[in-house]
Structure formats: structure tokens, C-alpha cells
């Protein structure tokens, strides 16, 4: 007889030692503490708390104007947002060459008012490294896609894609004496545009 | 109701006045109290050191002593918690279970059973810091806890607020451990002392003249630090304050 | 008989010799605890949320075999290569074999307490592989050749001055410069090069989801993502207890994790990995290393619910004043003290005693692990197994002899008080009584309560 594999040994040990079946909670999650009319305001406050900036715009053209003001758009810029044509950068095969990217703009699917996390999925991201390797990041999000809390977000997002992530602010660290520093390894800034 | 007075071993030996105050306080509230003379210790020192299995004799003695009592009341949250959680007897399991369910810390007996809402004679015109003992608070639920999202309350504070002239001082860390911790105070001497010192400083910074609480073990720890510092600040068990003016 | 030496007490004493530093450490950690309190108080449903999290974990552990099989099946369908490791050695060998297959010599790692537990770094370095920790705190302690002192804030024991000196030495920053912003920027530049050149990335796993066959990694710095997305090969290492049934359960855990850990509403990045990117290879290593043993113990299996937030450390009055290294184990603090004895009972016999059992850890735990109750239970197990100090044991049997014999107790009490009254300096002599090194003994009274009571009764009954 073949020797049992590690897998079999572990599973057998679990079966031997696990407790009798315990039930899942009757309900998962809670209704949001933020009312529908306060979603935008709460979301914007939390973006700020997270170290980013949130701007309400009427159109993509307005968003573009803000970007032009904040960033030098002659530096390498890549936009994956349809109708926001500011790209001047074509990603090469070689991932390390993405390191020069100055600004990356993509579309968020769902925004969560209680923590300002924005879900971005693989279709919007494209090359997975982009939102992390870019120096500056901007997310365009429709106000219609704001929800109150994470439980609601998980009801809306599609977790069956290859990759997706909640982004809540620019990268940060407090590993040196608990002093908050914005701009650790990921993007140093985050601007979220809220469209009607 | 037959109330058995449980005086923990170290209170018996080192702080008899706390036992006397507890007895007088209960009697002043018309409670008939008996003190079983052969009682010794709850067994906690052994159990907390990993030798709960060696405390059978101790448990047996406790059960024998309090067999005639409807309820047991003791002026120590820590010892009471130990009894509630760990009093066992292989010979008399039902009696042990009955006692586990009927042992009260003094403050909770006053607020929950006697429902004391006035102490007309009590007068203590001093600035007092309340040390909240961990076993009383987190173990017995004598007061709300800073870690939890829950309504605020405190049974000892409710009682202290009934004392005329008493000025309860606020603390920066109202429910930080004093560092006594049973045998921890000896086996982790350096840490235990530092924790005691930090607790004392919180009270001193807020101008307490007296530090009180429901657990004499915590207060012994704080007193040890105060006396080493030659401080004029005293420790008093809450029973002593509630009977002051009597 | 095996005997444990009181390592934690000795380490704590050494830490406490610099009182100013101890106070700073205490206050820094308390600052994080206060941020956690504010975050918790902002959610009225906080306690129920903890309860849900605890129940989901309890359920997942009660069906752990099924969920691991489901996870494996779905992960494989997604194109992830799944491995099983019984212990640290097997885990390390699996990682090494993958590296050899890809001829990888440069790897970047994001924080993984599991790989700390398995001592992966020293193992790989011995094989001539460059291993770079990329979490800032982890990189700092790696340059110092130290283990982490905290699971969320690995370098929390260090002051910025130390880090400034360290970076001056290793990264060429200006001498004497200790501004956190400046130092973080230097680390960013240094590590960016490492990310760009790495052959392979290792990450931990915060949650694995049986239903989707994917896993979630949470960071604030973005280092896990940079590493995993830039390298050709991504190895994610997880303890088998990290699996949860469904993606919707993440809503519960992600609301608790960062709030408990740092007081943030959520980590900056909560990345959901499900399939390797085109041209990339993704591995998932499932590690037991004592977890099935812990699961088989009704008293201790709850500790497997841990989501590694570190809240129990930040609140612990002992941890705050003794530092993470005093626990001499990968996971320090209260949770470490109930996990470590399961791995090596003899080596870590001192840790369940490094606590006053104040219970604050249990109250902050987002998955409601009864940490202080488990510390108490470990003490009983260690007492039973005879791995506590012999002095303690003799003392304890003596105590029962004393307390089960009221006459002896009365005699000893009287004798003790007499002794203390007669020789007060003896009782306060530090070499005889550790209590008295920093504290005074209580003044012994003339008579005990029972003596007084007997006297009163005599008077009344006449």
C-alpha cells in the first residue's frame, strides 16, 4: 500500500480532532449605519481620513481638468477610463518598465462609505501591477455605486475574477515610531472622482 | 437568608480591619451574618500557578464550612471569581455547584441582592481614587469595561457615590491592571512592581488622597508601592469607606 | 523531570532596566489601543460583529477538512498549484523546491507570521538565496538581524534614532537623519529596486475562501501586491486555519481586522487573488505545523480563530512593559503565549505565566478567543506535565496542606505575623523576598480577623 500523503495525514488529523459541527450565524452582516443621503459625504470624509482626496465632478472633462492641474500630464500617464483620453504611455511586456508611470487612472466598481474602500477588478486594472507601481493613482467612481458598508459591497462585487482589490487611500506606513507616513511602496497619492 | 461571611486568608491575616468593616457594613444593613471559623483559603494561589488539581483539600474545607449558608459573601472580587469558576468537589458535586452559584463579591451583594440605594451614615470627605480590580470587573462584571462597546456602569462607584463628602477623582486608565496577579507578583517581580508603580502614579497625578477598591490584593500591591515611596496616600478597602461615619 | 526557566521574567527585567524606554514603549502601544477603541466605538454593532466573526470561525474549524478540500479543488480549477505541508521543514522544502525549479535566486517577501514561525528566512539564506522582507518594519528588523517584536508592527520596539542609524549604515541615508518621512522614502527607493528585480514573491494569507478558491492579503504599504504582481512566481503560505467558507464572510472580517489592529477603518489594500496572471505561476502552501493538534484540544482549539490583528498585544499591560522579544517566540504577547506551548511545551512553559490574567486581551479580541482563560488552562496543563519550576511545585503542594488544615493555617498565620512583627527588616529583605525589591510588605496586625471575631463572640456570649 502506498504511504499516506501529507494531505491525507492532515485531513485525517482534522477529522479525528475537529469538534462536532457548529452552525454559521443565522445572519451575516449588518445594515449600514450611514443613510442613503449621507453616502457621498461620509465617503468623501473617509477618503480624506485615509490620506487621499475626493472630488465631486459633473463630467469626465471636469475630472481631466483637475488632473491637469495636479499632475504634469506630459509625464507617463495611463488611463483605463473610457472617455478620459489622457494616455501617453503604452505598457511594455517587461513589467519593470512600468516603474516610470507617473499617473494611472482607472474605474472603480463599488465604493464603501464607511471606510472609503473602492473595489477595482481585473477588467478595470489590466496589468495587475499598475495601481501599485504607479506614483499617483486616480479612481473614477459613480456616486450610484456607493454603498454603506462592506457587507453591502460584497453583495455587489464579483469575486470570481482573477484578481480584484479594495483600495482605500494612498499607500502608507506607521512602522517608524507610529508616525504616519503617506507613500510607502504603492502609490503616493490617491484622487477619487465621484461622478453623478 | 443565611449569609456566610467569607474572609480570604490574606485579609484574615494582614487586613483584619477589612473583615471587621465588611461584617459591620452587612450588619448595619440588617443582614444576619455567620462567620464559619474553620474557613481558610479559596484555593486560587495554587490554581493560578497551574496546580488547581492540588487544591482539592482546600475546596473540601471551603464546602464543609459554608454548607449551612444560603449565600456566601466575601470582600474580594478575585477570590469570589475563583470560587465561582473553579470550586469543585468529587464527593459533593451538587453542593459545590450550589455554592458556585451563590457566592457574591461584597459590592455586587450590596447593589444586586440588597439593592442598596442609600447609606445615610456614611461620610468620607476625601479625594478618592477607585482602583477597579480586573477579576471584579472583567471576571464578575462589577463594572463596564473600556474595551467593550456597551453602556457604562460601575457597582462600586454607585456605592461610593452614596457616601457624603466623597470626591471621586477621574483616572487616565480607569481599568488597567495593578500588576499583582497572584504569584505573578513574585515570579515576575520587576514587571509586577512597574505595573504597580504606574497604577499608583495615575491616582497620584489626579490628586487622590485615598485609593480604594474591592480587592485587598490589588490594594496590598498599591500600598507596597506607596509605602516604599513614603507617600502619605493611603489605601482603604471599599467596605472601610462605606462604614466610615458609622 | 523537565523544568522551564523563567525566561520571560528575566527578559522583562532586562527590558525594564531602561525605565524611560519602557514608558515610551508602553505609551506607544497604548496609543494604538486608543485608536482601536475609537474605531470600535464608531460601530454600534461592534460586539455583535465580533460574535459573528467568532461563530464563522468556529463553524469553519468544525468543517475544516471539507473547506480545505473545497479550497484546494477550486484553487486548482483557477490554476493555482496547491501544496500541503505537515510542519515547518516540509513547508520550507516546498518553497525551496519551487525556487529551484524556477532557478530563482532573488525573492521578495511581504509579511507572513507563518514563515516567521517556520524560520523560512534563515533556511533560504543558508541555501544562498537573497530574501528581502519588504514590509518597512520587517525590513528594519531584518537589517538588524532581529525577529519581529510585534505581529503587525514588527519594529515597534525601536526608536527613529535607531532606524536612522541603521539606514545610514545600510542604505546610505544622511548621518543623524531620523525623520520618519525621509527614512520611509529611502526605504521605498531601496525596496523598489528589489521589487523590480525579484524572481519570486512570497506573501502570507489573511483569509482563504473555500467557495472561490482564492485568498485575500491585506497591507497598508502595497508591498504584497508589488511583489506578487511583478515577479513571475507568487507563493502564498497559509496556516490551514485561515480558510473561511464564503466571500461574503470577508465583509465581517475586514470590518474587524484593521479597526482592531491599528484603528483604521480598513487596510489600504485588501487584495483578492484568485487566478495567476497570464504568464505567471501561483502557488498556495497549506501548513499544519501543530494546528491539527491544537484543533483536537477542546480547551485550546479556539486559539485557531486568530486573525493576527495584534490587538491583544497592544492592550496587554505585560506586553506593553516587557516588549515583544521578552516572549522569545515568533508570535509574542497573549495570543503567542497560548499558541507557543502547543508547538513546544517545554521551551515555552514560562509564557502562560507571563500574565496577570487581567482579561483585557479577551475583551479586545475581534474573534472572541478566550485568551486569558486559555492562559489559565495552559498553566494547569504545564503543572500536570511537570514543566513548571520545581520551587513553584513544592510551594503549591505545601499550600494545600496548609489550607486544608485550618489549625495549621491558624498556627502558620500567627507565626508568620509574629515573625514579621519581630523581624520587620527580614520580611522586607529583597534577597529573601522578591516582593520587597520594589515594594514594602504590609504591616502585620496584632491579631487576625478570626481572632478578633472569636474574642467578640466571647464578649457577647459572656
Automatic annotation (TrEMBL), chain A:
Tell me the Pfam families matching this sequence. LUD_dom
* Matching InterPro entries: FTHF_cligase-like_sf, LUD_dom, NagB/RpiA_transferase-like
Q: Which residues form the signal peptide?
A: none
Q: Which residues form the LUD domain?
A: 100-195
The cross-references to PANTHER family, in alphabetical order and at most eight, read: LACTATE UTILIZATION PROTEIN C
Q: What is this protein called?
A: Lactate utilization protein B/C
What lineage is on file? Bacteria, Pseudomonadati, Bacteroidota, Cytophagia, Cytophagales
UniProtKB/TrEMBL annotation, chain B:
Pfam families in alphabetical order: CCG (PF02754)
Q: Name one GO molecular function term.
A: oxidoreductase activity
Q: Give the GO cellular component terms, alphabetically.
A: cytosol
Q: What highest taxon heads this organism's lineage?
A: Bacteria
Q: What organism, scientifically named, is this protein from?
A: Spirosoma agri
Q: What is this protein called?
A: (Fe-S)-binding protein
| Cysteine-rich domain ranges (all copies) | 3-84, 128-222
TrEMBL record, chain C:
Query: Which SUPFAM superfamilies does this chain map to?
Result: 4Fe-4S ferredoxins, NagB/RpiA/CoA transferase-like
| UniProt-listed GO biological process terms | lactate metabolic process
For this protein, the record's Gene3D superfamilies field holds:
Alpha-helical ferredoxin, NagB/RpiA/CoA transferase-like
Which InterPro entries does its entry note? 4Fe4S_Fe-S-bd (IPR017896), 4Fe4S_Fe_S_CS (IPR017900), FTHF_cligase-like_sf (IPR024185), Helical_ferredxn (IPR009051), LUD_dom (IPR003741), LutB/LldF (IPR004452), LutB_C (IPR024569), NagB/RpiA_transferase-like (IPR037171)
Please provide, alphabetically and separated by semicolons, the GO molecular function terms listed in this UniProt record. 4 iron, 4 sulfur cluster binding; metal ion binding
Q: Where in this chain does the record put each 4Fe-4S ferredoxin-type domain?
A: 296-326
Keyword annotations: 4Fe-4S, Electron transport, Iron, Iron-sulfur, Metal-binding, Repeat, Transport
Protein's recorded name: Lactate utilization protein
**Organism of origin:** Spirosoma agri
Amino acid at each position: 500500500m502506498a504511504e499516506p500523503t501529507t494531505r491525507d495525514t492532515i485531513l485525517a488529523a482534522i477529522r479525528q480532532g475537529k469538534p462536532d459541527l457548529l452552525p454559521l450565524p443565522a445572519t451575516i452582516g449588518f445594515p449600514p449605519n450611514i443613510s442613503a443621503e449621507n453616502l457621498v459625504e461620509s465617503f468623501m470624509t473617509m477618503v480624506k481620513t485615509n490620506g487621499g482626496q475626493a472630488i465631486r465632478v459633473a463630467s469626465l472633462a471636469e475630472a481631466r481638468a483637475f488632473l491637469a492641474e495636479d499632475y504634469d500630464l506630459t509625464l507617463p500617464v495611463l488611463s483605463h477610463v473610457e472617455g478620459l483620453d489622457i494616455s501617453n504611455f503604452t505598457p511594455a511586456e517587461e513589467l519593470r518598465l512600468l516603474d516610470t508611470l507617473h499617473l494611472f487612472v482607472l474605474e472603480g466598481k463599488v465604493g464603501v462609505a464607511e471606510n472609503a474602500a473602492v473595489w477595482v477588478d481585473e477588467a478595470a486594472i489590466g496589468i495587475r501591477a499598475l495601481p501599485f507601481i504607479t506614483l499617483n493613482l486616480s479612481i473614477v467612481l459613480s456616486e450610484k455605486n456607493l454603498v454603506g458598508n462592506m457587507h453591502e459591497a460584497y453583495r455587489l462585487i464579483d469575486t470570481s475574477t482573477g484578481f480584484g482589490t479594495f483600495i482605500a487611500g494612498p499607500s502608507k506606513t506607521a512602522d517608524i515610531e507610529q508616525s504616519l507616513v503617506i507613500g510607502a511602496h504603492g502609490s503616493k497619492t490617491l484622487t477619487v472622482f465621484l461622478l453623478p | 437568608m443565611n449569609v456566610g461571611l467569607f474572609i480570604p486568608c490574606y485579609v484574615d491575616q494582614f487586613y483584619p480591619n477589612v473583615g471587621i468593616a465588611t461584617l459591620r457594613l452587612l450588619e448595619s444593613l440588617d443582614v444576619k451574618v455567620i462567620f464559619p471559623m474553620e474557613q481558610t483559603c479559596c484555593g486560587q494561589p495554587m490554581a493560578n500557578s497551574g496546580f488547581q488539581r492540588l487544591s482539592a483539600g482546600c475546596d473540601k474545607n471551603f464546602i464543609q464550612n459554608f454548607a449551612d449558608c444560603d449565600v456566601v459573601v466575601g470582600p474580594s472580587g478575585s477570590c469570589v471569581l475563583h470560587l465561582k469558576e473553579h470550586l469543585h468537589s468529587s464527593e459533593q458535586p451538587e453542593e459545590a455547584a450550589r455554592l458556585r452559584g451563590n457566592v457574591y463579591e461584597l459590592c455586587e451583594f450590596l447593589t444586586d441582592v440588597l439593592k442598596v440605594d442609600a447609606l445615610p451614615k456614611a461620610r468620607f470627605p476625601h479625594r478618592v481614587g477607585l482602583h477597579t480590580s480586573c477579576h471584579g470587573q472583567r471576571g464578575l462584571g462589577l463594572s463596564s469595561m473600556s474595551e467593550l462597546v456597551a453602556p457604562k456602569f460601575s457597582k462600586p462607584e454607585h456605592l461610593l457615590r452614596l457616601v457624603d463628602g466623597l470626591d471621586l477623582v477621574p483616572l487616565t486608565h480607569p481599568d488597567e491592571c495593578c500588576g499583582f496577579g497572584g504569584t505573578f507578583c513574585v515570579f515576575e517581580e520587576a514587571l509586577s512592581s512597574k505595573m504597580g508603580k504606574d497604577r499608583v502614579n495615575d491616582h497620584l497625578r489626579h490628586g487622590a488622597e485615598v485609593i480604594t477598591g474591592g480587592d485587598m490584593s490589588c490594594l496590598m500591591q498599591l500600598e507596597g508601592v506607596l509605602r516604599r515611596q513614603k507617600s502619605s496616600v493611603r489605601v482603604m478597602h471599599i467596605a472601610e469607606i462605606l462604614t466610615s461615619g458609622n | 523531570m523537565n523544568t522551564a526557566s523563567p525566561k520571560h521574567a528575566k527578559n522583562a527585567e532586562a527590558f525594564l532596566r531602561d525605565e524611560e524606554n519602557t514608558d515610551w514603549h508602553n505609551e506607544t502601544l497604548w496609543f494604538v489601543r486608543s485608536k482601536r477603541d475609537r474605531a470600535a466605538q464608531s460601530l454600534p454593532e461592534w460586539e455583535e460583529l465580533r460574535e459573528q466573526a467568532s461563530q464563522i470561525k468556529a463553524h469553519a474549524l468544525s468543517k475544516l477538512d471539507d473547506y480545505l478540500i473545497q479550497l484546494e479543488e477550486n484553487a486548482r480549477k483557477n490554476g493555482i498549484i496547491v501544496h500541503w505541508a505537515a510542519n515547518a521543514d516540509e513547508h520550507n522544502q516546498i518553497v525551496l523546491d519551487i525556487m529551484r525549479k524556477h532557478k530563482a535566486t532573488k525573492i521578495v517577501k511581504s509579511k507572513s507570521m507563518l514563515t516567521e514561525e517556520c524560520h523560512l528566512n534563515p533556511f533560504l539564506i543558508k541555501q544562498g538565496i537573497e530574501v528581502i522582507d519588504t514590509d518597512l518594519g520587517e525590513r528594519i528588523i531584518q537589517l538588524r538581524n532581529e525577529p519581529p517584536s510585534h505581529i503587525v508592527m514588527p519594529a515597534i520596539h525601536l526608536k527613529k534614532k535607531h532606524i536612522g542609524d541603521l539606514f545610514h549604515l545600510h542604505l546610505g541615508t544622511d548621518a543623524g537623519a531620523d525623520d520618519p518621512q525621509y527614512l520611509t522614502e529611502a526605504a521605498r527607493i531601496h525596496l523598489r529596486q528589489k521589487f523590480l528585480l525579484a524572481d519570486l514573491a512570497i506573501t502570507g494569507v489573511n483569509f482563504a475562501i473555500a467557495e472561490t478558491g482564492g485568498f485575500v492579503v491585506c497591507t497598508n504599504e502595497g508591498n504584497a501586491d508589488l511583489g506578487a504582481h511583478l515577479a513571475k512566481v507568487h507563493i502564498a503560505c497559509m496556516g490551514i486555519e485561515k480558510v473561511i467558507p464564503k466571500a461574503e464572510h470577508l465583509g465581517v472580517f475586514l470590518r474587524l481586522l484593521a479597526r482592531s489592529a491599528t484603528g483604521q477603518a480598513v487596510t489600504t489594500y485588501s487584495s483578492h487573488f484568485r487566478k495567476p496572471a497570464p504568464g505567471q505561476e501561483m502557488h498556495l502552501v497549506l501548513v499544519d505545523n501543530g494546528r491539527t493538534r491544537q484543533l483536537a484540544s477542546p480547551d485550546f482549539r479556539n486559539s485557531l480563530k486568530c486573525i493576527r490583528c495584534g490587538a491583544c498585544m497592544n492592550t496587554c499591560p505585560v506586553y506593553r512593559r516587557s516588549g515583544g522579544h521578552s516572549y522569545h517566540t515568533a508570535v509574542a504577547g497573549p495570543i503567542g503565549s497560548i499558541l507557543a506551548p502547543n508547538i513546544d511545551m517545554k521551551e515555552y512553559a514560562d509564557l502562560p505565566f507571563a500574565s496577570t490574567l487581567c482579561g483585557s486581551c479577551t475583551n479586545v479580541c475581534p474573534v472572541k478567543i478566550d485568551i486569558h482563560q486559555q492562559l489559565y488552562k495552559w498553566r494547569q496543563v504545564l503543572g500536570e506535565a511537570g514543566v513548571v519550576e520545581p520551587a513553584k511545585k513544592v510551594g503549591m503542594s505545601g499550600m494545600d496542606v496548609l489550607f486544608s488544615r485550618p489549625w495549621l493555617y491558624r498556627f502558620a498565620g500567627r507565626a508568620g505575623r509574629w515573625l514579621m512583627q519581630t523581624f520587620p527588616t527580614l520580611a522586607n529583605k529583597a534577597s529573601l523576598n522578591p516582593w520587597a525589591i520594589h515594594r514594602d510588605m504590609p504591616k502585620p496586625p496584632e491579631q487576625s480577623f478570626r481572632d478578633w471575631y472569636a474574642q467578640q463572640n466571647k464578649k457577647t456570649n459572656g
